[in-house]
């Protein structure tokens, strides 16, 4: 099969667009080998793959009894999946008996392994690849295995945050999920997973996940910050058209109500510096507006951005000059 015929050629190590799903539950713990590998049919594909992949990544191995490379791949991929101890599941589909799904995915050569996350295909490979490549593939899809060691967990959390900040929410979710296997109640990882949902536009799912957290976990500062971020996003959606607000301000720069709304919108758009500048300008012109509402809103931004964020540092410096000048 040529690269031009292979819909997944070049996709190894480069995930397609996908959804991260947390659903208010910690990442699945290690399961018995019998729970990790199963056969599926056209009738059960939706349940075995699409629905199951909303809880953890599912690898689908498309094979046929006559396929020599399939027989080479089977023991290797089953071994690697078993050793992954629940980070992924393996679902096998005989394309002779059930050809329609493979046809819909454009699979023209087997063995073909397609990874599903959040109900969607996100990556795949063709052929009987070596064990080392399968391990790399699973690390790419599910995040590398994380031991119970504190240092390893902290390193994984740091890497996940860096990925999320770089816009790689899917890869970040894989790392956060790996941490949650070791520490299901790790508040930083839970908050990070919800933040990944927000980054992927899964606002309702993120809210649902937060609502299902145990009371004690929900009190954590990291959870509080991501919950406040959701509040800000949901509020900003109701504040109108930013272009119209900009026009209002052009006509009347002292329309503080319009400026406050625009600050909230710019914040959820990710333009933190612009959001802060609008609030600081209100403070300079009228500290009494909404009972010092601009300052209180800015402090709420700081809570979500974090104390080390460059926008927080810059805005806090300017805030101090206003308060103590």
From TrEMBL:
Species name: Sinorhizobium mexicanum
Pfam families assigned to the protein according to its UniProt record, in alphabetical order: Thioredoxin, TPR_19, TPR_20
Cellular component aspect of the GO annotation: cytosol
GO biological process terms, semicolon-separated: cell redox homeostasis; response to stress
Alphabetical list of NCBIfam families matching this protein: thioredoxin
Coiled coil: none
Superkingdom, natural source: Bacteria
GO molecular function terms listed in the Swiss-Prot or TrEMBL record: protein-disulfide reductase activity
Gene3D superfamilies: Glutaredoxin (3.40.30.10), Tetratricopeptide repeat domain (1.25.40.10)
Family designation: Belongs to the thioredoxin family.
SUPFAM superfamilies: Thioredoxin-like, TPR-like
Ranges where the Thioredoxin domain occurs: 21-143
UniProtKB keywords: Disulfide bond, Electron transport, Redox-active center, Transport
Native organism taxonomy: Bacteria, Pseudomonadati, Pseudomonadota, Alphaproteobacteria, Hyphomicrobiales
Protein name: Thioredoxin
CDD domains the record matches: ybbN
